[in-house]
């Protein structure tokens, strides 16, 4: 798997990669253990602070790790990692070391203990901002406190989950900038 | 613009169209007025009830209409409607009748007063399920109470917003069903 060299991305810019709704890989760290899960239910919620809301179902091994550590990293994989994405989503960190099983590298983050995945083109370090909806909806509101983005090639193709084992690929870009009011850009 | 013939979709299935994260058109109705806005910040939250969380910023004319009526319809446009999507997002229902301006048809919904857009391939009738996060985050949690989907052609290409006037198009489908555990399908 390719390793991406990264530069800093202002956190206010994370919507460029998250708003399209790709499948992401959520890493966590708790009590000497790293874990990673596949996640598709998330939304950008605010520019400043840079908030992202994520559903992490209680059945995931990551749920307690993230609830207790109050941190995670949202890693965005390119479409070519589809088999790794599917593999990660179909086993549990309670039973296997997914980093070993899927040959994942783990790099040190700047502001959280959860690891960055260098094989993903974007890594968003997150701290829990609001846990008031965790009990009722398993809905975690995170603040992205540091963002790393591949220096090249911009945003590669991403995958979007539809359920039933089927993904959509977003690999084409269309600009309609001319149709926007300046204040909406 | 093409008009899609629809059939009912079980509400538990709406993740097939929403989880990929497309731009959607939100219709509303309040005091004899219909309105429509473009929205990109949303996430599926639960299968049963079929919950969807949406950020509707207070600056939108639709905000008060939806907050007061406690209803809306999430309409999913195909990629070929991109110029209509951009146009709707760059004017306000406080100043123009967007249905007239963009030649939008309005069909009667079954369970809500907000109209369905027959020119979109999916129409999800929603009732406000939880407004507790509206004040703090402009985050509305809706329950999809009735869903209509195009009889054909399945799911057309959708557009996903990245900010700055640029969209991603998801038009390719990849199946990895064989890599899933049965309980994860």
TrEMBL record, chains A, B:
Keyword vocabulary terms for this entry: Flavoprotein, Oxidoreductase
EC identifiers of the protein: 1.5.1.-
A Pfam family assignment: Flavin_Reduct
Cofactors, names only: FMN
Enzyme class, first EC level, given as a word: oxidoreductase
Residue ranges the record marks as coiled coil: none
Domain Flavin reductase like residues, every copy: 16-167
GO terms, molecular function: oxidoreductase activity
Family: Belongs to the flavoredoxin family.
Protein name: Flavin reductase family protein
Origin organism lineage: Bacteria, Pseudomonadati, Pseudomonadota, Betaproteobacteria, Burkholderiales
């Amino acid at each position: 798997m390719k390793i991406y060299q990264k530069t800093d991305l202002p956190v206010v810019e994370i919507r460029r990669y998250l708003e399209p709704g790709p499948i992401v890989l959520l890493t966590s760290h708790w009590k000497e253990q790293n874990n990673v899960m596949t996640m598709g239910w998330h939304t950008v919620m605010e520019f400043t602070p840079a908030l992202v809301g994520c559903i992490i179902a209680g059945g995931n091994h990551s749920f307690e790790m993230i609830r207790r550590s109050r941190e995670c990293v949202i890693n965005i994989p390119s479409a070519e990692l589809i088999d790794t994405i599917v593999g990660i989503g179909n086993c549990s960190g309670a039973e296997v070391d997914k980093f070993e099983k899927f040959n994942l590298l783990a790099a040190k983050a700047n502001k959280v203990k959860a690891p960055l995945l260098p094989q993903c083109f974007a890594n968003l370090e997150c701290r829990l901002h609001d846990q008031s909806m965790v009990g009722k909806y398993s809905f975690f509101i995170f603040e992205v406190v540091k963002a790393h983005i591949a220096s090249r090639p911009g945003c590669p193709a991403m995958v979007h989950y539809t359920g039933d084992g089927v993904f959509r690929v977003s690999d084409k870009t269309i600009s309609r900038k001319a149709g926007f009011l300046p204040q909406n850009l």
